[in-house]
Amino acid sequence: CLSVSSPRSAGSIHCEWREFFWNPRTHELMGRTATSWGLILLFYLVFYLFLAGMFVLTMYIMLLTLDDYKPTWQDRLTTPGMMIRPKGDQLEISFSVSNTESWDGFVQNLNNFLSPYNDSYQVQTNDNCPPDQYFIQEDSGEVRNNPKRSCQFNRTMLEECSGVSDRFYGYSRGEPCILIKLNRVIGMLPGKDGQSPYVTCGAKREDSDKIGRLAYYPPNGTFNLMYYPYYGKKAQVNYTQPLVAVKFLNASVNTDIYVECKINSNTLADGNERDKFAGRVSFKLRINDK
Ligand SMILES: *[C@@H]1O[C@H](CO)[C@@H](O)[C@H](O)[C@H]1NC(C)=O
Ligand SMILES: *[C@@H]1O[C@H](CO)[C@@H](O)[C@H](O)[C@H]1NC(C)=O
Ligand SMILES: *[C@@H]1O[C@H](CO)[C@@H](O)[C@H](O)[C@H]1NC(C)=O
Ligand SMILES: *[C@@H]1O[C@H](CO)[C@@H](O)[C@H](O)[C@H]1NC(C)=O
Ligand SMILES: *[C@@H]1O[C@H](CO)[C@@H](O)[C@H](O)[C@H]1NC(C)=O
């Protein structure tokens, strides 16, 4: 690198920099020889391969311990939540009896939801189980007893709320049906001594004189024990979730009614302060008469 001007000139600094980048005398690139660079690259290559290997190994071991048929982590102590059908954006059933369009969506929603409950379909896919006892189908040791059968829940068991005898589910007469389901929990045993859990609904706050008489289907609003335990989506492919229908026979019109339904069971704990959705569901009902 030859410099004609004085040592402190800009050309000299430029020259030094160029020499740092590539020194033709020592054959150094940015101050290191090719061997040095090669060793650095090799080190990082080995290092990252090692990290990737560790990651793959950990994932592999973790996946080995996962069971396709059962969630590895599940809190068995909590009481499951409940949900209603028809369900809109909010938990609110609000309609006018004389305005067909105001409840047509609810009827469609129930029709779709209940379609797989058709008696003909249930007979094809599921068993007619003995009631009031668990339908136990355990695996024997390492041998999986899969796929597991499920019990029939016939649409006609919902009687007035089945959409068969009254295809508008009572909405056209101001006596709406609401379906209630208990969220699925694998392995849950919701009752003992042959007593099935049952649903009761009541009015919240000062609405108790507005809610009127209720009818429950199946009788007493029970989730029969034969639908439990649930073994999971993959093991029990045709599982049909049991339902309870509540029909409001004489609810007051033109007023908001806040309804709460809850599960009564001799094994599931009541929902506590910490989880106010456990074992219960609340919704608003409003029936307008014009
Ligand atoms: C159930 O029955 C209704 C009429 O009652 C029908 O529209 C629907 O397609 C049926 N669903 C199935 C799955 O068979
Ligand atoms: C469901 O309906 C079918 C056909 O009507 C009937 O054979 C079957 O016994 C019913 N199942 C239950 C559990 O009621
Ligand atoms: C599920 O239902 C189908 C008919 O829809 C039936 O062929 C099959 O055997 C059923 N599987 C089980 C495990 O019940
Ligand atoms: C409903 O409950 C009453 C009183 O607890 C009982 O006598 C009756 O047998 C029950 N009905 C059904 C169908 O479980
Ligand atoms: C229906 O409710 C009204 C009050 O909202 C009451 O006056 C009437 O007696 C009730 N009818 C029946 C059959 O319960």
- Please work out how many helical segments DSSP would assign: 4
- Spans where pLDDT lies below 50 across 5 or more residues: none
CATH-derived topology of the largest domain: Immunoglobulin-like
Instruction: Compute the CA-based radius of gyration.
Output: 34 Å
What is the residue-mean pLDDT, rounded to a whole number? Answer: 88
Note the gap between the termini: 99 Å
CATH superfamily of the largest domain: Na, k-atpase alpha subunit
Per DSSP E runs of 2 or more residues, the count of β-strands stands at 10
Report the CATH architecture of the largest domain: Sandwich
Number of individual domains: 2
Ligand species: 2-acetamido-2-deoxy-beta-D-glucopyranose
Fraction of residues in H or I helices? 10-25%
What is the top-level CATH class of the largest domain?
A: Mainly Beta
Strand order, sheet with most strands: 3-5-8-7
Give short descriptive properties of this protein.
290 residues, alpha+beta, Immunoglobulin-like, four-stranded antiparallel β-sheet, 4 helices, elongated, binds 2-acetamido-2-deoxy-beta-D-glucopyranose
SSE topology sketch:
Elements: H1 10-21, E1 22-23, E2 28-29, H2 34-65, E3 82-85, E4 92-96, H3 100-114, H4 119-125, E5 177-182, E6 198-203, E7 214-217, E8 244-248, E9 256-264, E10 280-288
Parallel strand pairs: 4-10
Antiparallel strand pairs: 1-2, 3-5, 5-8, 6-9, 7-8, 9-10
One 2-acetamido-2-deoxy-beta-D-glucopyranose binds at residues 119, 122-123, 128, 152, 154.
Main location: membrane
Family: Belongs to the X(+)/potassium ATPases subunit beta family.
Pfam family, one: Na_K-ATPase
